[in-house]
Amino acid sequence: MKFQKITDELTIYDRTILKIKVIDTHYTSELKNHSTFIIGNNCKMVSASYQINGKFGACVNENIVLDGSALIIETPGYKFQEQQLVTFDPTIQGQLSYIDGCSNTNIINPLRNGDPCINYLFFPNDIKQTFHTHPSIRIGVILEGRGFAEIDKEVVELSKGDRFILDRHARHRFFTTDSFMSLAVFHPDSEDGPKDEANPMKTRTYINNQ
Question: What global pTM score does this model have?
Answer without folding.
Answer: 0.94
